[in-house]
Amino acid sequence: MPTRLVPKTVSVLREGYSFSRLKGDAISGLTVAIVALPLSMAIAIASGVSPDRGLYAAIIGGFFVSLLGGSRHQIGGPAGAFIVLVAASVERNGIDGLIIAVILSGLIMIAAGYLKLGAYIRFIPYPVTVGFTAGIAIIIFASQLSAIFGLDLPGKEPGPFAEKVAYLAQYVGTTNISAVAIAVLTIAIIIAVKRFRPGWPGMLIAVAVATLAAFAFNLPVETIGSQFGGLPRGLQAPALPALSVQKVISVLPDAFAFALLGSIESLLSAVVADGMTGRRHRSNMELVGQGVANIASGLFGGICVTGTIARTATNVRAGATSPFSGMLHSLFLLLFMIVAAPLARFIPLATLAGVLAVVAWTMVEKAAIRTLLRTSRGDAVILLVTLLLVVFRDLTEGIVAGFALGAVMFIDRMGKNVAVNPYSDYNAKAESPIANTDPDTVVYRISGAFFFGAAATVGSVLDRVAGGARNFVLDLSDVPYVDSSAANVLEGTIGKAEHRKVRVLLAGATQNVRSILESHGISEPRVAYCATLDEAAARIEADKNETTD
């Protein structure tokens, strides 16, 4: 099996896995499990499902992400980025439809890994990732407003952002002061712990203190028990929902959305881990591992799974050395679920909403946004378009539109970097004899990738200079790549030169460039291919001598 499709677990075992490494991984796994416990439940509730489904995803999905993934330090589980997509999927297709979509997304990710598509995720422009992350954060925060304020809503709040805010504004008068106090207490504790005791599990401490406060003062707030009836003490048996062709077709868009976002999020997380550790992940194996994890999570009733940046970073900082820390994190979560499930029913929903409010705030890359808005107008446009479309339209539309804008701006920038100039502009001493002494010869040089973004500009220049000479030499020695659009433009220029009886010589073309040009009819004897400008000069001189004789 190629190295790129070998799980990092196998690599670690080949190196030799000692008891000291196991001890370090156990400590880091426990640390991450403490962070993941409240977060997994909060994400599930915000996604419109019961909290146990978030724990199933963290336990089952997280285990397989570490076991079969391509990163040594990746921690998998439910992520805030999926809240919007999961909630919309549940509303459209119900829980069974969601589970089918999760399983299908796993199959799509496995296929992407075996098709070696993992490396292409890095081509998503940075402003797009910053924009959609900020957009998701805004939506997550908006989704928690009703729980934070304890609003008494007569019906289900709308999904779209603008409609949601307008709807919630109508019921501000029903605000529950106790819920607000619990949410504020939770946020304050998380911030204080992060500032004064950054090594402590701030989220778990905040949830525990707020729950005790609500219980001790008998505060009238909604809890997990009043809303969902508590948590089961263990995993449910794996099962596949009833399948039909119509159901599969209806959830396919959701499955592709889950797969796309999961791939982006997990590979970004793996890159972050690489930056912190100096290691290098295997992107295609990571996709395969994520795919298996989503299939397993779906079979056990869990929601979407992906690599999570915050929990992965926590894992690295806690001293993890291998994927076993991620597997142990899942086992610790299962132990917590078995032991502490009866206590979870007392957790106020406002507390979990406070946790997610902090998560949403930390998701927004404030420094990156300031830099992008300040340094580049093009990047600022991509960022804002992506963010606004994610918030007011749809996550997938935002990513696609941002990527398309980024591609167009890249093409524009690359096209402007392609230069076509007289050879003397590159050679101040005018050492080339044909550039100096022959009035019947024009020598131009193209620098940069000659592709469709620059073809029209280069073509207009060539058409102007080729008409007033008997010999037109085009230096292609600094052209690494030519595409069909550029070859077609060059073929048109050569056709006009032939009509004017101008001889065309192409110097310095690589074998790859020459093959592409010849496939478009730019071949001898229509043109003369020369290895260097000196060879072109010698040919022109020889032709003159033959004419004189």
TrEMBL record:
Its primary localisation, in coarse terms, equals: membrane
Name the chain's protein.
Dicarboxylic acid uptake system A
Ordered alphabetically, the record's keywords are: Membrane, Transmembrane, Transmembrane helix
Which organism is the protein's source?
Martelella mediterranea DSM 17316
Output the superkingdom of the source species. Answer: Bacteria
List cellular component terms (GO): membrane
A single Gene Ontology biological process assigned to it is: transmembrane transport
Q: Does the keyword Transmembrane apply?
A: yes
- Residue span, STAS domain: 431-540
Bilayer-crossing regions: 26-47, 54-75, 95-115, 127-151, 171-193, 200-219, 255-275, 287-310, 330-361, 381-411, 442-462
Q: Could you tell me which SUPFAM superfamilies the record lists for this protein?
A: SpoIIaa-like (SSF52091)
The protein's location, in the record's own words, is: Membrane
Question: Which topology term describes how it sits in the membrane?
Answer: Multi-pass membrane protein
CDD domains per the record? STAS_SulP_like_sulfate_transporter (cd07042)
Family annotation (Gene3D superfamilies): STAS domain
